[in-house]
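User: I'm writing a tutorial on reading structure tokens. Could you give me a worked example: one chain, its sequence, then its tokens, then a sentence or two explaining what the tokens reveal?
Assistant: Sure. Here is the example chain.
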Amino acid sequence: MTRSGSLAYYLTAWICGCFFMSLAVWTKDVFGTSANNAFSTHSVFALIFFYFYGLVFGVVAALAGGFLLRRVMSVLKCKTPSHWAAVGAILAPVLVAILGLCGRQIGVGEGNGLRVLRLITYGSKIVVDTAWWLAIPAGAATAYLLCRVQRAFAPQQSQQRS
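And here are its predicted structure tokens:
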């Protein structure tokens, strides 16, 4: 573990960020079609399916979002989870839109470099194609947790007794 908690921070960004985004996409998919079978066994396996592929295709977006959020909040010197959630709700849809629109522009070229770029942008492209606004609650929830992790590993002020 690193001293500043970077490993825990970025793992939280990846694991929780991808879960919240997958949950949002799954919820729109399930309740957009039919709410009658929302809690069936088939639907639960669909959530696991969404989450697994969300982890694979969302890793770059989640790590980039965590990095940008940490830098922005250190510049702004904000330490409260509500501030982090507000900035995360703004930053996540912007990042997803940028990566998703780049993913649309790549096309179906044959080069190995294009394959890597398609892999990096595929998760964001799916979110943009589904509904870009799903990144707002997912970004806010992820940023809230990232603030908690950041504060847990922040250097503590030692109290001096007089």
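What the tokens reveal: The mean pLDDT is 86. The radius of gyration is 18 Å.
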